[in-house]
Structure formats: structure tokens, C-alpha cells
């Protein structure tokens, strides 16, 4: 008998649908595609300083319950429409969760929330939700964590993120160079900015790397580079970095690197010291900077859901509270409305300040 030297730790291998097959089963019609394209261009205009509105990315820490996520989107869309003169609101729709050790990995990996790992079904549910949001006119954003799954859904995103744990990864920087949407790069978990700034530069360049085609074939992809990379300040173990002094240091670091002095500020994670109730306080500080006339903060991120806080995931969906996170704790709907209104008022005040000074 030949000596076994491969697949020694593979318990099972199940085929996934070709990316094109899922796209054909859940197609983006012209109306949805047009909405995505317009939303991306609006994000780009803010990042480049051509639009003085504030980009606000708000939504659940992770999607575990498509029904309540759609409920959230249906509430968010009219609020976004009401505040569209000051804010460009994009819904956070995160399907993959990076884990430091172990834990639920997200809707794509485990849609039944029971460890069964039906990735094919997870991809189907993820794409279905993104299409529903596009059809109601709600732009969406997600962290790009896996190197294969974006082929199944990323063309529906208005904005993407590379997280603090993967910002140093050469593979993720290459992938970002291929993405069609603007991409934000978070500072590292320790709080350092250098890796994210390097990542922006790397993603702007052309790359050739192995990937998977829409037909499911292994291919070598050559990219043109993504010109819309930008910095996300999310705090870190060294402390928060949302305050005016930290934002000024980030602006200088970007300027010294030859990049636009524009940052998106994450109100959660290290900036809230992992206390979800502090997110409105962080947003209020950012709003004060904006109201004083600063052009550097061009966006804000919030972890928000229908019900505040979080709940433990036991086994499957049984016993879960509707509309409450099973990963990081989120602010609730009423608090979200208040934060967005405060940010909109800050943009209006910045316009008055800039008009007075001009």
C-alpha cells in the first residue's frame, strides 16, 4: 500500500457552486447594478474631498439572522434618505468574522449557527441579502476576509474593508488591488498606522496572483490597482485614536506618505475600549471635530443593531433574541438614530464654519 502523504487532516471535501452559477441563480439586474455603481462613486467623491458629506457605515457586528438584518435595512433606508444632504449612509453587512482563537466564523461559513458548515448555503444567503438591500436602495459594506468568497458577492458592495488582523497580509493587499469598490484599511490591533499606510500603497499597484475565476477555474489574475484605498482608525491595545490629536497625527502620517489626509473613524473596537455603550461618545467627539471645520474625518463606522448588547450563541437559532448580535455588542436602534442625527448636524455646522471663513 502506498504511503499516504496528502490530505492527512481533511475530514471532508464538498463541492461549492461555481461563482458564476450563484450569480446566475441570484442575478443583479440593471437597477441593482446601477445603484451599486452610483453608491461607489458617491463614496469615492467623499474620500477624494469632492463631496463634503460624511460617510457613515453602520450595521450589525456580523450578520447571523438575515430576516432581522433586512428589517434593519428597511429602517435604515428612510433614515438615510432623510439625512442624505449631510450623510452618505452605508449598511454594514459583515458575513465573515476573524477570530483570535475560536468562535462562530460568520454566516457564510456556518449559516445554521450549529457548526454544520454549509458554506454553499451561506454564500446563497449572503448574496440574497445583498441583492435585497440593493433593490431597496441601501448601499452595503463588508470586510473582505477570505480570498475566494468575494467572487460570489463582492460586486454588490459599495465599500470594503481589510481588518486589523489581515492588514499586514500580502495576499489581502493583492486582493484589495483587484476589488472594484473603495477599500478601507484598519490600523493594526496594537494601534500602529504604518502597516495600513503601506497596505494602501501596495493595493494601489498592479499585481499578478493566483485566484479563482467565475467558472471556478484556477487562474492568474493581473490587476490594475485600486486607487481608492484609505485609512481606518479603530484604536488598539495602545489606546484609542479617534481624538483630535490622534487624527492630526494620522493626517500627518498620510501626508508624509503622499496620501490624501482623509480618515474613517471606527467608533467601536479599540476606540470604544470594547464597550459598546461608548460608541455614541466616540461619535460625538468626531462630530465635534467635524463641526469645528476639520476636513480630515470623512467617515464613521458604528456597530449597531435592532436590540442593543449581545447574546451568547448556543446551538442553532433556538432561543435567540431577534435582532441582537451574537458577536460583538452593538448599540440599539434608538441610539443609532441619535448618533446619525448628531453627525448630520455636525456636517451642517462645518459648512457654516467653512462658509464664514471663506
UniProtKB/TrEMBL annotation:
Keywords: Amino-acid biosynthesis, Aromatic amino acid biosynthesis, Transferase. Residues 45-338 form the DAHP synthetase I/KDSA domain. GO terms for molecular function: 3-deoxy-7-phosphoheptulonate synthase activity; identical protein binding. InterPro entries: Aldolase_TIM (IPR013785), DAHP1/KDSA (IPR006218), DAHP_synth_1 (IPR006219). Pfam families: DAHP_synth_1. Pathway: Metabolic intermediate biosynthesis; chorismate biosynthesis; chorismate from D-erythrose 4-phosphate and phosphoenolpyruvate: step 1/7. Its EC number is 2.5.1.54. GO terms for biological process: amino acid biosynthetic process; aromatic amino acid family biosynthetic process. Gene3D superfamilies: Aldolase class I (3.20.20.70). GO terms for cellular component: cytoplasm. It catalyses: D-erythrose 4-phosphate + phosphoenolpyruvate + H2O = 7-phospho-2-dehydro-3-deoxy-D-arabino-heptonate + phosphate. Stereospecific condensation of phosphoenolpyruvate (PEP) and D-erythrose-4-phosphate (E4P) giving rise to 3-deoxy-D-arabino-heptulosonate-7-phosphate (DAHP). Belongs to the class-I DAHP synthase family. This is Phospho-2-dehydro-3-deoxyheptonate aldolase. It comes from Aquincola agrisoli.
Amino acid at each position: 500500500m502506498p504511503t499516504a502523504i496528502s490530505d492527512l487532516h481533511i475530514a471532508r471535501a464538498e463541492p461549492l457552486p461555481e461563482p458564476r452559477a450563484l450569480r446566475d441563480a441570484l442575478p443583479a439586474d440593471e437597477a441593482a447594478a446601477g445603484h451599486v455603481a452610483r453608491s461607489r462613486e458617491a463614496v469615492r467623491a467623499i474620500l477624494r474631498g469632492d463631496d463634503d458629506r460624511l460617510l457613515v457605515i453602520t450595521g450589525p457586528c456580523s450578520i447571523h439572522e438575515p430576516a432581522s438584518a433586512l428589517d434593519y435595512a428597511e429602517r435604515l433606508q428612510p433614515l438615510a434618505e432623510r439625512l442624505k444632504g449631510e450623510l452618505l449612509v452605508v449598511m454594514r453587512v459583515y458575513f465573515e468574522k476573524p477570530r483570535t482563537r475560536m468562535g462562530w466564523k460568520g454566516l457564510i461559513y456556518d449559516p445554521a449557527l450549529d457548526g454544520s458548515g454549509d458554506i454553499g448555503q451561506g454564500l446563497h444567503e449572503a448574496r440574497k441579502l445583498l441583492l435585497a438591500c440593493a433593490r431597496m436602495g441601501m448601499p452595503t459594506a463588508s470586510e473582505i476576509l477570505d480570498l475566494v468568497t468575494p467572487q460570489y458577492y463582492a460586486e454588490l458592495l459599495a465599500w470594503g474593508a481589510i481588518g486589523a488582523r489581515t492588514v499586514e497580509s500580502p495576499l489581502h493587499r493583492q486582493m484589495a488591488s483587484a476589488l472594484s469598490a473603495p477599500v478601507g484599511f484598519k490600523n493594526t490591533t496594537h494601534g500602529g498606522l504604518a502597516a495600513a499606510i503601506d497596505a494602501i500603497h501596495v493595493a494601489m499597484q498592479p499585481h499578478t496572483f493566483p485566484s479563482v475565476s467565475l467558472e471556478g477555474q484556477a487562474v492568474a489574475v493581473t490587476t490594475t490597482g485600486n486607487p481608492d484605498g484609505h485609512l481606518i482608525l479603530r484604536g488598539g491595545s495602545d489606546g484609542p485614536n479617534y481624538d483630535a490629536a490622534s487624527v492630526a497625527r494620522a493626517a500627518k502620517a498620510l501626508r508624509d506618505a503622499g496620501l490624501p489626509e482623509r480618515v474613517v473613524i471606527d467608533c467601536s473596537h479599540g476606540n470604544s475600549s470594547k464597550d459598546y455603550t461608548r460608541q455614541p461618545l466616540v461619535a460625538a467627539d468626531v462630530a465635534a471635530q467635524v463641526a469645528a471645520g476639520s476636513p480630515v474625518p470623512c467617515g464613521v463606522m458604528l456597530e449597531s443593531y435592532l436590540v442593543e448588547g449581545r447574546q451568547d450563541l448556543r446551538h442553532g437559532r433556538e432561543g435567540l433574541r431577534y435582532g441582537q448580535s451574537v458577536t460583538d455588542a452593538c448599540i440599539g436602534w434608538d441610539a443609532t438614530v441619535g448618533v446619525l442625527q448628531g453627525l448630520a448636524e455636525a456636517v451642517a455646522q462645518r459648512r457654516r464654519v467653512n462658509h464664514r471663513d471663506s
